[in-house]
Amino acid sequence: MSNNKDSNKGFRYKKYILPLVLAVVIVISALIFLRLASSISKASTVLNNVNEELGESAEMISGLNSKVRTLQEENAGLEEENALLRQEIKALQTGPVGFYQKLKSGRDVNVLVVGDSIGGGAGSTEGNSWDELLKDWIESTYYCRCSLTNISLGGNTSYAGYVSEMLLDDDTEYDLAFICYGENDGTGGFAKEYEGIIRGLNRKYKNCALISILESSQKTYTRKIKDIITLAGHYGFPAADMIEAYENSGKSFEDLCVDDKHPNDEGYKLYFETLRNIISEKCEAYEKHETQDIAPYDEAVKEYDSFYYINSEDCERTDELTWDISFNGKLSGKLGINHELMPGGGSLEVYADGELIAEESYEWDYDYPLKAIHKIDDSTCSVSESMRLKFSSKEMADAFKGLVFTGIE
């Protein structure tokens, strides 16, 4: 009996153990789950915080990268400025080389203009020619003195420019020369004579920079304009394109000229602005200019490497129409003359050793004389003892200045 009671009692206890264990397991699981959920929540919060911090860090890194790029750009700019400063310091220590460095350094400069009537500013009012505007701008911008000499001759060709520069003897070392020709020249022989000007300037003046002017009067890119562009490229100097400047001005050709050739004040202002921009750019680049020994583009130009001039003061006026020249030895070369064309024109006879070698007639239908330098004949003149020049009028004989020999043999 007692065993059965104990057995039933044990059975009764066993019946409650399993639910109790399950309850304990459930409670423990719930506790674990709650703990785990809490941990997950905390982990999620931490993760969100980390993500926020990473986002802020990414923004910070992006901002830093942007600042680094900005600093790199600023540094590159500073390096360029430092390089220019080093160049300027070096130039100040050794002396600037060429027109653009001298100008940028505030040194005084000497400028030469070799040209025709456009080179001389014909058509402008007082103070408004391109060369006067340029001189004033140079002095006010670079705080220096600009000495400008203009030997342009209206109505003349490039040959006159070559002779004029060779005759120029003013003890001045020019830093920049403008060449302004093309309107009065024919196409035959133009390129050779223009190259003669370039080579003459390069021989005569050390480190003289050159700028060619493409005259607006040509209106389009003629053969002569193309020849100038080719020669400027060969010798490595700029050509100021006034044809393009006129086309881009928004005004008609007639609005910028006083006639069918010569610019008015507004036209010359375009000349000035175009040349100013070329000079400004080269000054800002602190461009060094040293004259180089460059082979001729056309070998025939070597004719102009030799130059001999006989001044009228060294000749004898034998009568009111005649000039005689004596020689102590043989001279051979191509002959040119420096004189004036008189109203109504006239003629000239040239004799060498008593033989007539050339006859020329001149037309000039204006009421004022024109200074003229031109070739008499493109063939070679050979003389041993004497030459005679016989003019058709006393006025023409009075205006005789001298004879030119080039290509001397």
Any overview of this molecule?
By secondary structure, this protein is an alpha/beta fold. It is 44% helix and 22% strand. The protein has a 5-stranded parallel β-sheet with strand order 2-1-3-4-5, with helices on both faces. Strands 7-8-13-10-11 form a 5-stranded antiparallel β-sheet. Strands 6-14-9-12 form a 4-stranded antiparallel β-sheet, with helices on one face. The model has no long low-confidence stretch (mean pLDDT 90). Helix 3 (130-142) packs parallel to helix 8, helix 4 (158-167) packs parallel to helix 5 and helix 5 (190-204) runs parallel beside helix 6. The protein is built from 9 helices and 14 strands.
Short description:
44% of the residues lie in helices and 22% in strands.
Shape: rod-shaped
Q: What is the total tally of β strands? A: 14
Question: Could you describe the largest sheet, including whether it forms a barrel?
Answer: 5 strands, parallel
| % residues in beta strands | 15-25%
Cα-to-Cα separation, first versus last residue: 163 Å
Mean pLDDT, all residues = 90
Strands of the widest sheet, in order across it, are 2-1-3-4-5
Q: Nearest-angstrom radius of gyration?
A: 44 Å
- Contiguous low-pLDDT stretches (5 residues minimum) are none
- Briefly, what CATH class of the largest domain? Alpha Beta
Element-level helix/strand string? HHEHEHEHEHEHHEEEEEEEEHE
What count of structural domains? 3
Q: Mind telling me which CATH architecture of the largest domain this is?
A: 3-Layer(aba) Sandwich
| SSE class | alpha/beta
Q: CATH topology of the largest domain, anyone?
A: Rossmann fold
* CATH homolog superfamily of the largest domain: SGNH hydrolase
H/I helix tally: 9
Helical percentage: 40-55%
